[in-house]
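Quick illustration, no need to memorize.
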Amino acid sequence: MILLLMILPQESPRIDSPNVPLSQSLHVMKKYAFILAILATTSVRGDAPNFEAKDAAQFATFWSSGAEITRYELSQSRYGEAHAGHAELIFVQEPFLPDAQVKSDSGGPPAEPTFKLNALRTFNTGFYSYRTMQSTFAPIDRERFPHALKTTLSVQDWCGQVFQQINFRDGKWQHRSYSYFQSEGDFVEELPEAWLEDELWLLLRRDPNSLPLGKVEVIPALLHGRFAHQAAKIETAQASLQADGNETVYQIDYTSTSRRLSIRFNTEFPHYIQGWTETSPRGTTTARRTHGMGQVEYWRLNQPKDAPLREKLGLERIPN
């Protein structure tokens, strides 16, 4: 408030007065635009802190020792009811080829150090089972790669399976979708540049200061679109940050669909995700962190003797 009082002119001339020069009118308009920008930023950031920044090299070094695996207790909304299950978020760094947009076999140039999220959900809807998995790849060097380069989604249930993939090429999104539903059959389309909701989970861990705030254009999560049987499209949303003790909440409110996503994460680096809530007219989905393991090379733990490690994550040795 004190800052605004210092900025505001004591007597602002009417900018539509014929006695006011055009240059002075433009100066006043720019001053008020600056004030409004401050007010807008303050409202969407709430009392959220300025987060500790890590450059690309520091971030890559931190994530060079293995993957982080976190298990969540899940309540998944589906068919108008809440269904118990579990979710896992697996964050890991790996070499990625920007042109081919696949993981590099050799790891050498021209591969880019890339932050990857594998997000899995397991739940049953009454008698039959659901399994979902999404993989999103975002290069760590955000100056050269401001967006994730790729995200994929697969959903399996006893009725069938679907697969979607979005790639960022030439300043736009390329979307491919494959489904066993006639109305959602195989197709390829292009979407203009916008934020992917699915890439914001990685950006939250990489650099929360860079999260989009205020009025933003977002392509909603592929999983949400799949469950709602809605086509991928750009929607207008309002995004905000709010501090809550040692944690911060990043919230996205979609204007036209009354859907809200709230992600709760630790304010301090490395910004562990503690849980999330998704509400819409279709119901509410919640996830709460229960177990976690850091810096683990899980891909090497593939023998029967390694099975007891699943219990440390609250998982059955043989999955339900």
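The first strand starts at residue 67 and ends at 78.
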